[in-house]
Amino acid sequence: MISFVTRFSPVVLSLIVITTDAQAFAQGIVPGTGRRVTEVGDDFEDPNWHYIPNFPKSSRNIDKQLRAPTGTASNNSFYESNYRGAPDVVKRVPTPPGGLPGSTGAMMMSSVNTGIPGMISMKQQQDDFMMNVNRRLNGFIPVSWGPNVVVRVYLPPFDQWENRTGSSFGFRADMFTTTYETKRGGSFRRSRKIQKSEPYWPGFFIQFNSKDDPRFEEDSAIFLIRGDQNGREVPGPQATEPGWWTLGMSFTPDGKVHYYARKGVGNLTRADHITSQFPYGFRAERFQTIFFNIVSPDNGRTSSTEWIVDDPMLFYANH
Questions:
Q1: How far apart are CA 136 and CA 134, in angstroms?
Q2: CB 3.0-4.6 Å disulfide test: which of 44, 81, 198, 216 passes with 128?
Q3: Is the separation of the CB atoms in 112 and 304 below 8 Å?
């Protein structure tokens, strides 16, 4: 019997190949592809790994205060953001069950005070913890190199989460593009375009949906992708039980950001693709680093959820 495939003409077969290739390109590079950049990242296996805080921490995003020196990990793999400041607590913990095979250590982060040190804002605020990429590699990474990043994130049992509906954790990238601003001036009121480098921060947020909120019958979490062409969040997978997830992002020469996620600690595949976007209408040009957001209500008493991550890694697909 003649198989279904052999009935296609050569022209049709070539169209199928082209369509398949186009679909693969649209999904970008699967995070975890290419050469791992061993100079950056961390597996937290060193039992002596610890964080060295330098309080009070920075809050430049609120009051323009950079309080140097900033905190750093003992092996300099991560450091405090001088924009928002680092989480109150950063430490090595035993890897929760179901983690990467052979892993004995991971990194936990949590915060109570996420705003200006010594003040209570009673507003949701964030802390940042930065992976040391640009300092170790001496600069930005062009998207032509196909940078892509992967991390494992542990979602604790829902009764251990801060009990409010809203964002709790972020996994984001520090990206740059070029924008142009029109300036008018001079005696003839001529306009001219000013070129500038514009930072932006695409990535994931994990939002808790509390059963104590009348909109939800059960506790759950949802992955939100930031963002689409207009900066709006794109809904991703929903988590209805605790455990490990693998998250990844890749950045392609066309300037797109590609988002992937899967339950468990297995390697990402094309089946784990969520969406590909030009966040805020920007085309990515340069990658600087990844970082984690820890979110709390900054009320002086309520701690954020304790977030645990393991093996954040950077790869080059084209270099």
A1: 6
A2: 81
A3: yes
CA dist 249 and 265 (Å) reads 15
Under 8 Å between Cβ of 308 and 89? no
Cite the DSSP H helix spans in 149-282: none
Q: Return the pLDDT at 193.
A: 82
Are 17 and 8 within 8 A, CB to CB?
Answer: no
User: Which CATH class name applies to 35-316?
Assistant: mainly beta
> Tokens at residue 29, please?
């590079």
Q: Which of 198, 199, 202, 260 is nearest to 231 (CA)?
A: 202
What's the CA gap between 103 and 124, in Å, rounded? 33
Residues 6+ apart with CB under 8 A from 273: 27, 28, 30, 258, 259, 260
Mean pLDDT by 10 residues, the chain (319 residues): 32 34 70 98 98 96 94 97 96 98 98 96 97 94 97 98 97 97 69 89 98 97 97 97 98 98 98 98 98 97 98 96
The whole-model pTM stands at 0.90
Please answer whether residues 86 and 70 qualify as being in contact, where contact means their C-beta atoms are separated by less than 8 angstroms: yes
Residue 276 to residue 260: CA distance in whole angstroms: 9
Q: How far apart (Å, rounded) are the C-alpha atoms in residues 96 and 157?
A: 11
- In order of 194, 201, 230, 250, 278, the CA distances from 181 in angstroms are 5, 20, 18, 28, 19
281: which DSSP letter?
G
Whole-number pLDDT of residue 3: 33
10 Å Cβ neighbour count for 158? 20
